[in-house]
Amino acid sequence: MGSPAKEVYFVFMNFDPEYDHLRKNRSKQGTLDSYLNRKHDKLLAKLLQPNSYKKRSSLAIVDGFAVEMTQDQAAVLRGAKEVRIVEKNQELA
């Protein structure tokens, strides 16, 4: 029996005043990108087993990220207080 199927999910975060401040100050785009990468990586490391997921990218425009993970892992993230919503990527035909 193989491991559970992994799919790409989008994870959107709850309001974060630091994100809001950095987003409004566009001259610090690199700072915002770095902040979000660290923030998203820390959340994943806190809630999921190492090497059991693959973060694809952080999305600065919405404070979210794309991650390849299992349905059970998506359920774990849905229960996190920092997370607003977790949605499976839907391919459009």
By DSSP, the count of extended strands is 4
Task: Supply the CATH architecture.
Answer: 2-Layer Sandwich
Distance between the termini: 31 Å
Which outline best applies? globular
Find the CATH superfamily.
Peptidase S8 propeptide/proteinase inhibitor I9
Rg computed from alpha carbons, rounded to a whole number of angstroms: 14 Å
Structural class: alpha+beta
Biggest beta-sheet profile: 4 strands, antiparallel
Content of β-strand = 25-35%
Q: Can you count the helices?
A: 3
Binned, the helix content reads 25-40%
Oligomer: single chain
CATH topology: Alpha-Beta Plaits
Q: Within the largest sheet, what's the order of strands?
A: 2-3-1-4
Uncertain spans, ≥5 residues at pLDDT below 50?
none
Indicate the mean pLDDT.
92
**Domains (count):** 1
Order of secondary-structure elements: EHHEEHE
Structure description:
By secondary structure, this protein is α+β, with helices and mostly antiparallel strands. It has one domain: Alpha-Beta Plaits (2-Layer Sandwich), CATH 3.30.70. The chain is 38% helix and 27% strand. The protein is built from 3 helices and 4 strands, in the order E-H-H-E-E-H-E. The chain has helices spanning 17-24, 29-47, 71-78, and strands spanning 7-13, 54-59, 64-69, 83-88. A 4-stranded antiparallel β-sheet has the order 2-3-1-4, covered by helices on one side. Strand 2 and strand 3 form a beta hairpin. It is globular. The mean pLDDT is 92. Pfam families: Inhibitor_I9 (PF05922). InterPro entries: S8pro/Inhibitor_I9. Residues 46-92 form the Inhibitor I9 domain. This is Inhibitor I9 domain-containing protein.
